[in-house]
Records
---
Amino acid sequence: MGAHLVDLFILLPLAVVIIWLDSRFHFFHLYWFLPSQLLTVWFGIYLVYKYGGTPGKLLLKTRVQMIDGRPVTAKAAWIRYSVTFGFALLMNVALVMARLDMPQGEFELHSWIEHQLVLSKYMPPWSTWIVILTNVWAWSEFVVMLTNKRRQSIHDFMAQTVVVKNKSS
């Protein structure tokens, strides 16, 4: 949890820029779709594969490794993040669809916070299920992590990985 909070803090400046751009450009979600997916893959998969963790994990002196102690494989890094990535991808598709359906005139009438509320009426009906499933997944991850000796989450069991403390020198 701490590593996740550190990662959020590190990404905060980017989030501010994204919110600002999103409030100014009606089709921002469409233009940001591919770069956001690439950033997600780089941050959640590549950094885990290459360095054993995201900046938050590394700053808190933990790392991800295979259950047998080997460095994380590319396949394991992908499996580990696949469910979260899938939900995020589907939600981003829903946001693009909603923005494409939202009339330009309605976009121009509202502040960014109001956009988010108005945008919800243009979201595809299936997006509600994605929100529900994302929450079920997140809470399940947390419960599973708290109920096993190695503190592995479901994604760790799927990828056969474990988060360990770095050995001190």
---
Amino acid sequence: MSHSSCSVCDEPLLRLRYFPGQLMTADDMRAEQEFLLKKARRHNRFLHGWGVTCGLDVRLPMPVPGTSDEQPPTCKLWVCPGYAVSPQGDDIVVDEPVQVDLCTGRQEPEPCCEPWPCPPIFTPGRRGDTTQLWLAIRAAECLTRPVRIPVAACGCNETACDYSRIRESFEIKALTALPQLHKDAKAADAAWQNTIAQWRQSGTENRQPLPVPPCPACTDEPWVVLATITVRGNAQRTLDILDISFQDRRVLLSVSALQQILLP
């Protein structure tokens, strides 16, 4: 079925089967965690979808009180706390405001994860050139809380240590192009809306059962777009931020938000 046109982007899950006298190792513990993580990701991806659920507003920095009324420093933006679901079903939680520099690509506080290798840091063009950037976020993980590793009696390395925790984190980056997944998802939403419209117009007498939507597409793109930023190069080889738009943001409404919309 791997080459079938109706195949699904997923695989069967394996969970541990415990029995008396079983020898448990670190690999078994990791397998248990991986099963629960994949189960939660599958639930998010197929039942809820992906996108921004709450918060994650993108704003210009406010002028510091007591200073001049000049414009705030260019290149920098603030991302407010919030929650999103990645295209792979991972939770993305931002628990404190994050400052992002569009010119250098720096994020403060810095992400503890390995930076995504691409796209490259945006380089301002000539003075007066206007272009668009897409500020996006992805789920990430980092190792934390190192502990000493017990060594054998004959071991000579008494300072060995390893990380004992994995912290869920995120990375924010300015993309130079809108991810293809966002374009494909928008087209899929339009096709599904058209299918529902045709079903409603078919009449109640010979109406077929409610159509079943297609499964989400397989993708390796991890980015969730937060905002579309219009920028312009200036004489200082930095950027003037002209506009912040949410036209390309994909919104994933929570159950409570849907209830407020649908219930009288």
---
Amino acid sequence: MKAAPFRYERPRELDDALELLREEDAKPLAGGQSLVPMMAMRLARPAVLVDLARVPGLDSVEQRDGELVTGAMVRQRTLERRGELARELPLVAQALPYVGHREVRNRGTVGGSIAHADPSAELALAAAVLDATLVARSADGSREIAGGEFALGPFQTALRDGELLTAVRWPLARPGDGFAFEEVARRHGDFALCGVAAWVRPGESTRIGLLGVGPTPVVRELLPDGAIDDLVTELSPASDMHATAGYRTRLARVLLERCLRRAYEEAGRS
């Protein structure tokens, strides 16, 4: 199939892009790795497509005030190849190789992946577990959204009409923190049947998150005696052509145990 008719705009300034996004049924185009296929299948029919490729200031990566600030247009592959990433954001460094294939990550963007809000998206899960700060801009101003409050449902976010995700502020890892990320898919690069992220801060908190087992990332803070059984029991994954709900629940338990063990071991070595 081909996309339904739409108007194509390619602004050179952020203010111009934000003004265009105020129009009815306008959608931003970042890497296009999710939106363009959906348009080709007519699952998405924007009236106006606002290409962000020429907008300056959205593709920077810098450390600032204990955070790594990534512009929304930073390519996933660019972040993946950042030499300091394994030290700055170990969880993101572990999650990125699972995002599609390398060719997809060459074009796909950090902000685009998170804003797409696919329930199986790895970067969206990492942002929720780390409680990253998502910066949204519109023609009327800017605001901040907590990573754990961004996804509202499948392909639904807390972004308001006319708002654009412009940056993600990730908290830098501290010495002694432990992280682990794993997922299972039918083939590498396919959508995950289930994925788990774990962040251990000894003596303070343990945060875990799951993808593929609900309409949004599932994130919980475990107490030292918190039982995995309680969390797994409350999951309600769906059955589909790829896996049954029971299989996904079993995967969740196995991956939770594995990731928590790895994260605690890493924290113990630090």
